[in-house]
Amino acid sequence: MKKISRRNFLLASGVVTVGAALAACGGGSSSSTAASSAAPASSAAASAPAAAEGKVLNIWCWNDEFQSRFNDYYPEVKEIAADKSTTTLKDGTTVKWTINANENNNYQNKLDEALLNQDSAADDDKIDIFLIEADYALKYVDSDYVLDVKKDIGLTDSDLAGQYQYTKDIVSVDGSQRGTTWQATPGLFAYRRSIAKDVLGTDDPAEVQTYLSDWDKFNDVAAKAAAKGYKMLSGFDDAYRTFSNNVSAPWVTGTTVTVDENLMKWVDQTKEYTDKGYNNKSSLWDSQWASDQGPTGKVFGFFYSTWGINFTLLGNSLATPTAEGGKEEVGNGIYGDYAVCEGPQPYYWGGTWICGAAGSDNLETIKDVMLKLTCDEAIMKQITMDTQDYTNNEKAMNEIASSDYKSDFLGGQNHIALFAEAATKIDMSNAGPYDQGLNESFQNAFKDYFTGNVEEDAAKANFETAIKEKYPELTDVVWPA
């Protein structure tokens, strides 16, 4: 398979510069005739003689989500340190957790530096497992720093057969799968039942969907909601992934960036919503956005994928947070007042993949972790039943979808049934290694346009400037006619 050479990985990581500093979410599918001898080659793991397993398993991630899944569901866990910095397995292996927050590319920057020094690190300091997200997955899987989950680690097609195909496609290059995940992350539209009743006369998900089944209808409901004193969306970014996941081609071909027509539809809609007062001018993750999801919020709904409902929306809905003694139950804030429907277009948002690092001396342990936490049907089903997260086993999810499972948070709705339907529609064919950086730059450039600080042409020029600074190797930008 083609791999990113050591030099290109350095460029993609922002470790060296050519004319300007590069951001860490670069990369690409550029090939090299031979990777630098300093770069660890994944094929070495397959050809090397069997060695004793290391007694330290180093896992790198950006938050505690996978750590909690590991500690709660990996059967070999024996003991967890009080500060959660280490986990001890039944065979005596010490799992060391290195968690670096994502902000300002911090996680990727530190991970890249560690991977570039992997071959010279002491055995107990080498990275064994690291986590990646969909937006920058190709940067890592199309490199020499990640192991093939079948050829190098030993998983089989049979082991992986129950997983959604897109979760395998996104971490595969030239037929080599180089990561695996316990999640599938189809998206839906989460709406306030009480607001839907006031605006549409119903809160039934099937009926609400008829009003939101395409963007024209969605915009009509936005006008009706505004007439009742509600915002349709919280801010500028809420609908972005629903548009960006439905583009007709990848962002980059060769060295040319092509802005898809669908992204300009998002620009037009968001400008209209801002000008007409259909949103609250918030940005994802800011305090206004979080508040709009809570008891005082007057926003019709939010685009969320699987993890967002149980990790973010539920917490924001509570008047008294669980950290302050509040309970996840009806009566605490607006718990029970949300429901979900398909919305105007299928999309996905996020997802976390487990990668085995080249140079690891814990291949058998990595294999077992991947088997138990991404391939075991019973464990996958239990995670969903316990946490409402949507897991990567089609049979298990279909069983829950057709059962009497209900989410109290969603007013008794079996949202797994909608996620199961949406998951089969996910298309990763237009994903690329520049997605995170270009999507972020595009959204940032147009916020000044939405708020009236610059004209549209200036926003376009600002986008071009931003990406030329971030990715000097990208030479041209093509806009829709």
From TrEMBL:
Q: Which domain of life is it from?
A: Bacteria
Coiled coil (UniProt feature): none
Where does the record locate the signal sequence feature?
1-23
Q: Which PROSITE patterns is this protein grouped with?
A: PROKAR_LIPOPROTEIN, TAT
Q: Name one Pfam family in it.
A: TAT_signal
Presence of keyword Phosphoprotein: no
**UniProt xrefs under InterPro entries:** Bact_solute-bd_prot1, TAT_signal, TAT_signal_bac_arc
Q: What's the protein here called?
A: ABC transporter substrate-binding protein
Species this protein is from: Faecalibacterium prausnitzii
